[in-house]
Design a protein that fits this description.
It is a single chain. By secondary structure, this protein is an alpha/beta fold. 48% of the residues lie in helices and 14% in strands. The chain is built from 19 helices and 15 strands. Strand 14 and strand 15 form a beta hairpin.
Length: 543
């Protein structure tokens, strides 16, 4: 009976466990920066504070968007990257460069292949860490080194021919090429392959008799199984059942297998001594910069894979022009990502909208019938600016957006019995907090504020809030049932109206149009439809 000494099956492993080994034999760390941030030591202070999503995420449905983007990639812990907007135009441009490079299908496929090899390496290291037997740990470790060196070599080759333009990717490519050519890396690769080949060549026999197993060298004994199969082959008629025993691939050994392996090691002391030396010398073989790249590149791959869903449905995406000075923002054929994701999966129709602010204009006041797309428009405005602040392409044919310092939202909430405040008081407290935090570089999105009070009070409070925002010179979207707010004479305010079908006012088009609020005309069209206008009532009374 012959057996080959090979690692058993794989199991999932945490990405961080690659760094848990000793430093013996480790090559100098790869010298390159992050592909997410420009500069060498570029992780911002608030990076660690981004574990929880910003307050605006719930109101803007950005939590659902990030959950959809990162689905299937939980091992990389990408959500904090999507939580933290960038603070400079250079950082935004740095990411846009990498996104554009990653649009190329060949590069994305190379990254996917690299990620799969790194995932296999982590599974092997997990098996080594979990094994109770020293020889098994050493062999799993050797297999992990083989996979790792192949991943690095293959990625260096693929990046070398990719024609990269992004600063971050070019820097990593050059550093990785140097590493793949280095003497330390070649030694690691050659030793691992040579040792694996030596172990693979080992053959041994097991004599099983009366509950005992004797392990001895293989000396060319015949394979009796093959001889028996050949003898009875002439009696075979058509397909027959295979009765060969299938050994299970497991991530661990039982005690019998471990004892057998110990005796094989006694038969081949040189090969297993070399394995032990290799394990000690290269305990920490994974470069932290390569591990970081493996995680960071998934930010780009995950987002672009998500975007492909929409492009496949004919919806446009673009790289926005982003400014930290000019507030003349706008977008063409844009849409709410969270809503569009649901509609695309259900084969529904996604309605796109345009908007623009010119010159001194700063505030959109959005009015119109309920369920007409007003809140969706407000969410779209916030989503676009957050995604642009991450360096991501955004929904739309084109977009000009503002790099904000804070994105502050106020959406209607149910009364909270814990704080013992009524709805109006709660609205006032929240609005006051938002205005205290806001700066001229902030974006405010207010949805149906002061809807719980009288018309006169809501109008008084709404005007005061908008007056303070105008003084701040901040950008704002205000969705309201108060058409008087849209009729403000200030040149800073733009009226947007959710449109209805002119032939059937009960039908919403979900288009948001830049025009004066005309709720009276809308009411008149509904009255006309139901024949309750003055003209129709006179006609009916006469009849």
């Amino acid at each position: 009976m012959r057996e080959e000494v090979e690692p058993p099956a794989l199991r999932a492993h945490d990405a961080d466990d690659a760094d848990d080994a000793d430093d013996a034999g480790a090559a100098p760390a790869l010298r390159c920066g992050s592909i997410l941030f420009p500069g060498a030591d570029d992780v911002p202070a608030r990076w660690q504070e981004a574990r929880e999503p910003p307050d605006c995420f719930h109101d803007l449905n950005l939590g659902r968007v990030v959950e959809a983007i990162t689905a299937g990639r939980q091992e990389y812990d990408l959500a904090p990257i999507f939580h933290a907007p960038l603070g400079s135009l250079d950082a935004v441009a740095y990411r846009q460069e990498a996104m554009r490079d990653m649009e190329h299908r060949a590069l994305r496929q190379a990254v996917a292949a690299f990620a799969e090899r790194m995932r296999a390496m982590r599974r092997l290291l997990a098996a080594a860490k979990e094994s109770a037997y020293e020889l098994a740990r050493q062999r799993w470790h050797l297999a992990a080194v083989e996979v790792y060196t192949e991943a690095v070599e293959r990625l260096a080759h693929d990046l070398g021919g990719a024609g990269l333009a992004a600063r971050g990717l070019r820097g990593f490519r050059d550093a990785l090429a140097d590493r793949a050519r280095s003497a330390a890396f070649r030694t690691l690769k050659d030793e691992a392959r040579s040792l694996a080949a030596a172990l693979q060549a080992i053959r041994y026999c097991m004599l099983i008799r009366d509950g005992s197993i004797t392990v001895c060298r293989y000396r060319g004994e015949s394979d009796h199984g093959a001889a028996v199969a050949e003898t009875f082959r002439k009696f075979q008629q058509g397909a027959v059942k295979d009765y060969l025993y299938k050994f299970e691939d497991r991530p661990s050994m039982n005690h019998v297998e471990a004892e057998v392996l110990e005796r094989v090691a006694l038969l081949e002391p040189d090969a297993f001594a070399a394995l032990a030396r290799f394990y000690g010398q290269h305990a920490d073989f994974v470069d932290p910069a390569i591990v970081r790249f493996d995680r960071e590149i998934q930010f780009y791959a995950a987002y672009l894979d998500y975007v492909d869903r929409f492009r496949g449905a004919g919806l446009p995406f673009c790289y926005p022009q982003v400014s930290d000075r000019h507030r003349q923002v706008g977008a063409r054929d844009t849409f709410d990502l969270a809503l569009a994701d649901k509609l695309v999966r259900e084969n529904g129709t996604v309605v796109c909208n345009d908007f623009t602010l010119r010159g001194p204009e700063r505030i959109f006041v959005v009015t119109g019938p309920n369920q007409g797309g007003k809140t969706t428009f407000a969410r779209t405005f916030g989503q676009l600016h957050h995604l642009a602040s991450l360096g991501c392409p955004v929904p739309g044919l084109e977009a000009r957006l503002f790099l904000y310092d804070r994105l502050l939202t106020h959406f209607e909430r149910e009364e909270d019995i814990v704080n013992l405040r009524g709805k109006l008081e709660d609205d006032l407290v929240r609005i006051h907090r938002i205005l205290d935090q806001a700066t001229p570089n902030s974006i405010l999105i207010l949805n149906e504020i002061f809807s719980s009070t009288t018309l006169a009070d809501a109008l008084l409070l709404g005007r005061e809030v908008l007056r303070r925002i105008v003084r701040l010179d901040a950008l704002c979207v205000c969705v309201t049932f108060l058409e008087e707010l849209a009729a403000r004479s200030e040149e800073t305010t733009v009226s947007m109206v959710s449109a209805v079908d002119p032939c059937d006012p009960a039908l919403r088009t979900f288009k948001i149009e830049r025009r004066a609020a005309d709720g009276l005309a809308h009411a008149l069209s509904i009255a006309e439809k139901h024949r309750v206008t003055y003209r129709w009532l006179r006609e009916r009374l006469r009849t």
